[in-house]
Fold:
Amino acid sequence: MKRELSALSDAGRLSVVTDASTCAKHLREFPGDAPVLDSAQFLMTHVLPRLAITRKLPVVAVHHNCSAQRLSEQPMTEALARACADKIAVLNSVTCCGYAGDKGLFFPELNAHATRFARSDIPAGCTLGVSTVSTCASGLSEHAGVPFVGLASLLEWASRPIQ
Structure:
């Protein structure tokens, strides 16, 4: 894996970017010269400074998945959400979405149990949530009462030209 990451990054000249914090955490376990960024790091460092935010949501729910917590990326995720919303609401009741990679696909009761209190963290007027892992977003969309998307989707919406 170290060799493949080095080749992808042109011996560390380019970053390897993944849109899943779980993948970033795993890829960083292979020491080498390839810088690995997850979506929060990449969007905060390379995309947000170049965007013109044209619209904001009143409030966005934020899920800090297990890997993002281990990577200490909560501040970046929250900053990106704040750039696109007047307020953010962190899901304090969901410390793990219960998907455990792909296990929640085969055992949906894991996700249902882990997210059973998520609706109580969604404030009135909140119509969207974000997570840096698509399986977490999928499970939360099903159980939290609002759709969850990735950070890139939120930034894309917030930077669309107003017509």
Remarks:
- The mean pLDDT is 88.
- The chain has ten helices and six strands.
- The beta strands are 16-18, 36-38, 57-62, 85-90, 129-130, 148-149.
- Residues 74-83 form the longest helix (10 residues).
